[in-house]
Design brief:
The protein is of the alpha/beta class. The protein has 15 helices and 15 strands. The chain has an eight-stranded parallel β-sheet. Strands 1-14-15 form a three-stranded antiparallel β-sheet, with no helix packed on it. It has a two-stranded antiparallel ribbon with strand order 2-3. β8 (228-229) and β9 form a beta hairpin.
Amino acid sequence: MTAQQPHDLNCLTVAELEKHAEQCMDKQTRDYYNEGADSGSTLLENSQAYSKYRIRPRVLRDISLIDTSCPLFRARSPLPMGVAPTAMQCLAHPDGEAATARACREAGIVMGLSSFATTTLEDVAAASGSNPRVLQLYLFEEREHSRKLIQRAKAAGYKAVFLTVDTPMVGRRNLEIRNQFKLPKPYKIANFAEDSDSAASKTVMDGAASDTDADKREGKKSTSAPGVHDGEKRTPPAGPISFHTHAPNPTLCWDRDIDWLRKECKPQMEVWVKGIATGEDALLAVHHGVDGIVVSNHGGRQLNGALATLDALPEVVAAVQGKIPVHIDGGIRHGTEIFKALALGADFVWIGRPVLWGLSYKGQEGVALCLRLLRDEFTLCMGLAGTVKVPEISKDYLVKVDKSGFVSRL
């Protein structure tokens, strides 16, 4: 990412990238990717939270050599930025996750892969080469499903597992309901397809699979059922793995599940928790020995009315006290916002929807464009703010603007 590349004169900002993606995506895909839970207020506030802060630039400093690198997974990342795990990327472009992986490899940027990807974790690893990658994980009630996925990720060289902890239930996404969202043929939830003819390979979001003719002839059942509790005991989900039936796990708890996950992943992979939004849970994460935290509200797709991730960040940072890294996702649309997140204590940020917009716009080239725009904006912001190394970025470079327009130092 060091070589200067020509501008795409049709797309000079992430905001313009979003507009291009609107034209490239069909309505079902656009609604699925861009929707938040319920009224979407938390989705909106994730972005708006950044406008509450202004940068205090320092001048007359030698900024002739700016180093944007930072530590990540016992190595160094060229930027304090990674590509967040997002599901079913073949909806955005036929090359899907493989195109994203290739763009990340060329940029040296870590990629997060969703468990519910439309490309297998092995194929993404092959497209990534030696570039670092992490696996987002839903810990299923039937542990064997998760154990198999973890073992495959270990074998494929993934650096960490990011356990999503904010989905004990699935948030209400009204457009997804109204559109009766289905994963269209020929795409499949690739990581849970044992073979090309299995019902699981055709499973869609709600568990109603798109049956093959062979399945129908053989009388195979291709529907999934969520777990239920009859008041005395709980019956786990049944049938082919689907998001709505298997991903939400209301039985997850700190004392049992984090210890199990650490034993399964270590020492090859780190264990992170994604979805922390309070100081109390941050302290529990440290207590239970996780390797890092991602402050996240699932892109505003779970609990509507929850804190914007940037608003939750300072509390989490204060609780952790530097014992483990704190990352953040949600709402970042410009390089100056990466700077603001770092100034408020984040060690690293993850970019979700803008990458999908880039993928929809021009496949691998569009993802590379998204990463380049954010890199250039962040580097420029560092220099104009008077910083030359990421550790120099602190709250001293920010002020907060209240609703009345008054400015206060942090």
